[in-house]
User: Fold this.
Amino acid sequence: MSDTLTRMRAWWQQLAAIMIKEGKQVTRDPSSWIIAVVLPLTFLFLFGFGISLDTTVVKIAMVREDGGRDARALAAALTSSRWFLVVPATDRLSAERLLQDQNVKAVVIIPAEFGTRLNAQDTTAQVQVLVDGAEPNTANYVHGYLEAIWNGFLAARGLEQGGALAAPVSLEVRYWYNANAVSRWFLIPGSMTVIMTLLGTLLTSLVIARENERGTLEALYATPLTRGQILIGKTLPYFLLAMVSMLVCVLTALLLFKLPLRGSFLALGLVSAVFLVPALGQGLLISVTMRTQMAAAQLGLMTGYLPAMMLSGFLFDIHSMPPWLQAITLAIPARYMNVSLQTVFLAGDLWPVLIPNMLFMLAVGALFFGLTWRRLRKRLD
Amino acid sequence: MLQRLLAIVRKELITMLRDPRARLSLIIPPIIQLFVFSSAATMEVKNIALAVVDLDRGPYALDVRQRLAGSRSFTRLPRYANVASARGALEREQVIGILVLPSGFSADLTAGRPASAQLLLDGRRSNAAQISAQYVSTIMAAEGAPLSGAPPDARPAGAAGPVFPANAEVVIDNWFNPNLEYQWFMMPNLVGMLSLGVALMITALSVARERELGTFDQTLVSPATPIEIALGKLLPPLLVASVQATLYLLIVTLLYGVPFRGNLLVFYAAILTFAEACAGVGLFISSLVHTQQQAFLGAFAVLLPFALLSGFATPVENMPGWLQFVTTINPLAHMLRLMQGLFLKGASVASMTPDLVKLLEIALCTTAAAVLLFRRKAA
Assistant:
């Protein structure tokens, strides 16, 4: 009995020793503090201010070749719209050059005899629109705005002539959780996922690769430490570091970006802690697989950071991706983290949503840690 | 001097390419990224699910459902008895929103009265939600018209509805990208983005690795001057970047059918200048730090702002004014404009010159800064 107790105490002492060693290595490196505090803050600022999908005013050019009443009314409708900043152009050629040189996003041409053709029965009045299609998202918005203005123009004209009124089906659109559909509200939780991936996966991916490269891994193997102790000892300091920066991120989001926190701090902390299991596990797996830090860094970037950015639903909606890619996203922990964070911040503690997501994260994490465990053999070669 | 410089370049290339795995890691990952991310990066909304709560069950409600099913945005339209039961699906992100067609919807429209419907959307996915709202409202706007298949006079006289003159139309012509394919936008951007990654990472880790391995001092005691050593480290990334860019160019145009309408010389000039600008930043970071881990983080701390403030993910015009100013010193922002011009727009050399010149200025600045810092640290 006392024998097992002594052995357990020894085990804990060894674990504490390696944790203290790793902890010192982390805290004595001034860059750790930069990583834990400065980097997340900078990134959050950049994400918060730099990324916005809320289309603001779009600059367009207008060529009006018809001086008639209808043409003037349409021009006024375009100019007074809050979506467009209209630059008048003298002729088609100069307007097209504006479009070519990326000065405007679209050109609207109201051709000569527009009014005459509109008022005659047997002719068709055409408004010609050239849209810069190079950026499809903006182009789609321009299409929508133009359609709305055109319908408004026709309806107003019909009304004047004693015709019928507004469209008969009114669609009342409401956004749950984010009443004004502010893109920042869904982008900031996503940015936190990216930052956590950066800390959890990328930093740890260098941990064992560094010892390998410097040759200190052999020294570590020569100690009585077991694999489990090495794994835990190397992971925990990074876990704490990541949790600290998560706290910094959350406070910034709440105080500076005025993000609502409709769930609880408990749920937030739990989700973050659970996410770090696969994130750290992935980093360690990379670390034991790659021999050099350079290779580990590249793999970490490829399989950790970039997927968190592109495949987690942070910027691009997963449901719109091709099926084979949606299948790949199932193995990406950031995907589950993203949904969980968005839910805790915007919707509340919806446990039926959070628990399955946390289970998935733990499953992926268990896989990563299991593989690391198998690869981390105490052997010299 | 040239001889010594070439010797250093050779040495750097050997370090970089000696290991077959390292050679592969320069070529394979970027190509995988090109394939995966070009499929992932889409702002279109397609194949998603919209819940329908049909309390009306009339002919117009059926018509709305059929029209929705006909669009390629919504492939699944699960029906729910009431909003409360649909809400669970929305919470679990199984549907993007809930369309509620109230009872009396068809009766109102048949009688010529205005009808209303409700669309509840998931604000957690606000971008996809907004795009969905656009699609649904387009379909609903058309709903006042007579039911498809019904005779034109099925609608009672005097029914409300926009009576638009049949002889007026807007003809929209999308320049540069007629079908508004998102991949056409993303591919040229990825060419710039991936060149940034490789040029920055190679140089950022180079000096740091030598410091860590202790070979840095050996290089310094060689007859080469610090400036030659620095230049020797800046040139190999240019080589790698242009080889990769050639590969991308072939994949993007031949495999994905994205047009290349510009001048090839401008393309390579852009790649080389841009890679030089990035390599300068990388070497600057590398001279500043002590370990590869720090170098890696330093590179990262630059990579992310470059990417975010370039128009890669979201348009520069959406940013606040002061940030738009910052984008003018971001090499990637200029690079992306050049790539768009070269691939899609067939922009003239003259119209691309300002961006090229700006890129060259940035490259000169970063190179000078890197070489100066390197010399100071090496001395």
User: Anything to note?
Assistant: Chain B touches chain A through 113 residues (CB under 8 Å). The two ends of chain B are 19 Å apart (CA to CA).
